[in-house]
Design brief:
The chain is 26% helix and 34% strand. By secondary structure, it is an alpha+beta fold. The strands form 3 sheets. The chain has a 6-stranded mixed β-sheet. The longest helix has 18 residues. The two termini are 17 Å apart.
Amino acid sequence: MVYRNKRFTDSGCTVSISMFRGSGGVEEYHVIVLPYESQVKTDQVDCLFDAYEAALAAVDLNHDSSVFKRYFCSDLAGQAPVIQAKNAETNGDDASQCAISLVGQAPGSPAEIALWAYHINDFEAPLEKSERSSVLSVKRSDLTHHWSAGIHAEGGGNSFEQTESVFEQYTNWLDKNQLTLADNVLRTWLFVDDIDKNYGGLVNARRELFCRNGLTPDTHFIASSGIEAKSRDGKNLVSMDAYSLSGLRSDQLKFLAAEDYLSPTHIYGVTFERGTAVSYRDRRHVIISGTASIDKHGEILHQGNVPRQLERTLINIEALLKEAEATFDDMAHFIVYIRNSADFALVSEYMHKRFGGIPTVVVKGPVCRPGWLVEIEGIAIVPADNSNLPRF
């Protein structure tokens, strides 16, 4: 993994980039852009876009390689129209299609917005991208990667009903494309408005739906983060981003548990995998779900102590990585969620001191249990040599 970090003084933003190049020559980039100077909201959006463009130019990337972008917004209702207009201006042609996720999770002051972007750079041919029903599909030889963003309930209802609606829309799309939750979906992000009030309905609806679709403690679940994010209007209590893969083979997958450190999720009523390793011909992706300070009995550790919770969370993540023959040196990015805004500086400094150049963004996203003050997710990319597996 190669890391680059640059401060763009003209735009008042820092940019952190990770780059992995496999033996087949295909490159993957994770880019995080974060303003470090205060501007009015519209100016900060403009400055973020300017810094992102400059960063792409610095590493010789263009928008044809873009696959997924998530904007972390302090004022989703106010910032979303500006972001959408800027993306339409930048990505006006079909070759520059990209899945766009907009979430109400504020980064730490003075930043009012942050960006995580994912790019694939193939020197042999441009990406073959198509978009249908708000899903970006990227065809790669025998595989097709599908990125869905911003799936939300059509109509009102409580969090149970909205979760049912979100998954019904998604499973209908999967069915139309001859895919299933159990066989093809690798990752979900579930965003909950007022998580302390609405998470229970989400959990119950997801558990029932998973059971109907063959996802049980005896089979497997899906890597996921369930985290608070403010909606634009307060009416969408649950929304979802998701990543699935057509052509996925069962021998490409390994589900990560690290049971000496973490409990199975189902023992406290939730249904997601702690992590999933996906192997390709020349690389392995290690998807780390939202992970917190928990022990092998499912109990919260170090209540009220943010530094100790951070340490334990990272111990748990390290154990998951080890099961996939990965280390922190293979991390492409981290997303860190905190419950209390007062902890931004402490958490940001801790992550910077320990991990230096790894692209990291810290945002306000309360976790599903009030006792958890911090949660971390991310992805690692590891070199591999699997001649019998599909090319990435």
